[in-house]
Sequence to fold (479 residues):
Amino acid sequence: MTTRGRLLSGLATAVLLLAGCGRSSTDTAGASTPAAGPAKAQASLVITGGTVVTVDDERRILSPGAVAIDGTDIVGVGTPEDIAARFAPRETIDATGQVVMPGLINTHTHAAMVLFRGLGNDLNLQDWLTKYIFPAEGKTVAPDFVRAGTRLAALEMILGGTTTFVDMYYFEEEVGKATREAGLRGVLGQTVIQFPVGDAKTPEEALARTRTFATAFRGDALVTPAVAPHSMYTLSAETLQAADRLAREMRIPLLIHLEETKTERDDSMKAHGQSPTAYLAKLGVLGPHVLGAHGVWLGPDDIRLAAQARMGISHNPESNMKLASGTAPIADYVAAGVSVGLGTDGAASNNDLDMFEAMRQAAFLQKVVRVDPTAAPASLVLEMATRRGAAAIGMADRIGQLTPGRRADVIIVDTTHPHLQPMFDPVAQVVYAAKGSDVRTTIVNGRVLMHDRVVKTLPSAEVLAEARVMAERVNAAIR
Fold:
């Protein structure tokens, strides 16, 4: 009765189950009533029949497998027969011909900057920022702009299987509202920078905004507020330390760009006699609450500092390649025990938010720069986009793998397309061949945000229309 990818009502599921059961004593004269089996646990949703890639401690691949969800949590992972015997679902998704896996975690982006997509290409980071991005932001960034940009980014992320994203931008309360509307999970950092910007004229004002934002979203089921000092080269030592004090006081993450370019490192050595990482360590601005974005130019001593601090690193291969910033030493991070996640960076420097593309490029980039085909195997890169990314943002106990007790952040990838056949190795196929457009279903916190490529939480036409209006604002600003 089911068809692939179709949501079944609890009634339809019950009919199917009854059709496969033996007849009762009322069906056949003289037949005895069968003994009742153990009571089944309730489940709000069961996904069954697909290839389940758990990315758990055992790295299990169940083909076919099934995942049971109740409310916000995963409550069971096993074979279809096991899950059917244990759970009575209100809804069922038949995932035959598809891969069921953890939702992807984008550990570094600037969501609203999708509205600058394609602005200022083929430049190094400093020229791109100072000649295009900073001037354009000064003339365009406002609450409505940030809201429209975040909604566009959220639509793109839902369609591409990203369930959690880490953001650094301005008017972050607008990002929070749009994230809630979309149903995504977000670690959202209010940017602090030394010069006047759209939402704060001084760093002190930005820190005050951060406190207000963090208070407003404290305890939110989906939004984790954070403070986001832009970088060590755009902030004074006093501001960096003030941002860290706020993070520790409010027990929120601290997000910062870290050693993205060789210029940043060279300038720090000249100004402070230390690398940016060592400088932050000297200031006391390192710790398990810190996520450093990029981490391209850390040397061995810096990596040891990062490991000792138990901080996380976000690797952004596509942005780093496009801006010719360099290649992060991923194998060295992993060997040192540093939690490394994967990110896209903002769409202004990528130019998309496709985490499948980021996985593919992360793997290929490490192989070519190390001249080693075993560098960054598919299994490691998938973990960077899921469980290792969760660890990097301090959520390893909540998301990043399909395990009972974790939040139900799940995606279903259609592998029936020609570019995904045949499938000898589901993990390699997901990393090396899948695309964001192959995602059929996106679930966050147990809520279906998209099914059969139809987004249920955002009005797509309205979001795109808003984006076109904001694009005209950008055009006017750069003329």
About this structure: Residues 460-478 form the longest helix (19 residues). The two ends are 59 Å apart (CA to CA). The chain has a mean pLDDT of 92.
